[in-house]
């Protein structure tokens, strides 16, 4: 179970471990360039300027809807500025994407459809595996440890992305952000993955790069390993409650 008090050095996969759950973006694969391409296509439909890939990385992790809301926060800020006739927003909150139009806003609905279509058209052509990802999956698979993918990315993209990255054969269970009624940081996806793998949460690991992964693991009483190279390097993963921190998946081999 994740705690904030102790963070021992990684000692390797425990013999009792029977299941490992992986996040996708920022953990196993880097798909930020494709995401940024789709985000900027969507922003262009609203006559908004393109943003850097580094900015998009900060917005990723809570699903496509939140990504779209963050990427279109300029519309909300302009609305506020016009209403109050002054600039009232905080630049730090702006960078983190904390100014959000509601999901039922017509602009968000339009933006979401534009983003989804543009992202589908990228066909994952710029996706790359992080160092050690393939080797770790192979090792766990050979050890007969059951594997699940638990991501907040929409389910419709997962089969093609996993195939593109050549890691589609390893996972017994694949859950997207819209597969269930709740996504991470709610524990439901992790607990559902354990149920489908037929493993106990206490004998499982969650490996991810973000606040959502750690909080979900803590809520599900699953040991969590946080990778420091992912999309959320600005977050204090240790303070959030990760049991272990690793700088590369090669450390888990």
Automatic annotation (TrEMBL):
<comment type="similarity">
    <text>Belongs to the HAD-like hydrolase superfamily. CbbY/CbbZ/Gph/YieH family.</text>
</comment>
<dbReference type="GO" id="GO:0005975">
    <property type="term" value="P:carbohydrate metabolic process"/>
</dbReference>
<dbReference type="InterPro" id="IPR037512">
    <property type="entry name" value="PGPase_prok"/>
</dbReference>
<keyword id="KW-0460">Magnesium</keyword>
<dbReference type="InterPro" id="IPR036412">
    <property type="entry name" value="HAD-like_sf"/>
</dbReference>
<dbReference type="InterPro" id="IPR050155">
    <property type="entry name" value="HAD-like_hydrolase_sf"/>
</dbReference>
<dbReference type="GO" id="GO:0005829">
    <property type="term" value="C:cytosol"/>
</dbReference>
<dbReference type="GO" id="GO:0008967">
    <property type="term" value="F:phosphoglycolate phosphatase activity"/>
</dbReference>
<protein>
    <recommendedName>
        <fullName>phosphoglycolate phosphatase</fullName>
        <ecNumber>3.1.3.18</ecNumber>
    </recommendedName>
</protein>
<dbReference type="InterPro" id="IPR006439">
    <property type="entry name" value="HAD-SF_hydro_IA"/>
</dbReference>
<keyword id="KW-0119">Carbohydrate metabolism</keyword>
<dbReference type="GO" id="GO:0046872">
    <property type="term" value="F:metal ion binding"/>
</dbReference>
<comment type="pathway">
    <text>Organic acid metabolism; glycolate biosynthesis; glycolate from 2-phosphoglycolate: step 1/1.</text>
</comment>
<dbReference type="InterPro" id="IPR041492">
    <property type="entry name" value="HAD_2"/>
</dbReference>
<keyword id="KW-0378">Hydrolase</keyword>
<dbReference type="InterPro" id="IPR023198">
    <property type="entry name" value="PGP-like_dom2"/>
</dbReference>
<dbReference type="GO" id="GO:0006281">
    <property type="term" value="P:DNA repair"/>
</dbReference>
<keyword id="KW-0479">Metal-binding</keyword>
<dbReference type="Pfam" id="PF13419">
    <property type="entry name" value="HAD_2"/>
</dbReference>
<dbReference type="InterPro" id="IPR023214">
    <property type="entry name" value="HAD_sf"/>
</dbReference>
